[in-house]
Amino acid sequence: MRDSVLKVFIGYDPVESVAWHVMAHSILSRSSIPVALIPVNLKNLTGIYDRPRDAKQSNEFSFTRFLTPYLSDYTGYAVFFDCDMMLRTDIAEILQAVERDPGKAVYVVKHDYEPRDGVKYLNTVQYKYPRKNWSSVVLWDCAHPSNRVVTDTYVGDASAMQLHRFQWLDDSEIGELDVRWNWLVGEYLEPPADVRNVHWTVGGPYFEEYCNADFAEEWFAEHAKMTFCQQRPK
């Protein structure tokens, strides 16, 4: 695959399958550059990942997201997104972070918050821990030497803390994305008009109890575009 093609990995969980497809549509419909959309789906990782599910995992891709550089053969740039998101801008813009601050192994939104609620979608426990949600949007320099540590074996064996806190990296190797690239609905109030990526971390509009969340109308409009098919005139 050419370096000009941006690899975009999106976590997939069958309990919210619709979220993956709407997120994928929001990316491809706005992108000005070639993108390869890749689901991080457990069923596609036979022989690569066989780690038992941790009771604290809120979704199937809690750990497999860290396979991004391995699946990219440690070449080029790649982005990982959770599926409970919707892009509102051209994904090519995320690469501006590299231009501003080159040489980092990863670029993330460095959230510093505690969840407002103890429970989120499907009655899942909302755990509190340092660097929470840093790993929900990651721009990876897959060729960075420090990311060579992140092999399939490492992802299968490392602790949740080692992975989600990026402990294989020195803090100086962790670049920063603007918070608009990972806007946490229900956690952050008064969203600016130019939010680039909406993240329904507590629960997306496709769950009945969250159908009136911030940006829900935009999600339903994106869903309608994703399912559109032009018909023959009668």
TrEMBL record:
Name of this chain's protein: Glycosyltransferase
Q: What species does this protein belong to?
A: Stutzerimonas azotifigens
User: Which InterPro entries does the record associate with it?
Assistant: Nucleotide-diphossugar_trans
User: SUPFAM superfamilies given for it?
Assistant: Nucleotide-diphospho-sugar transferases
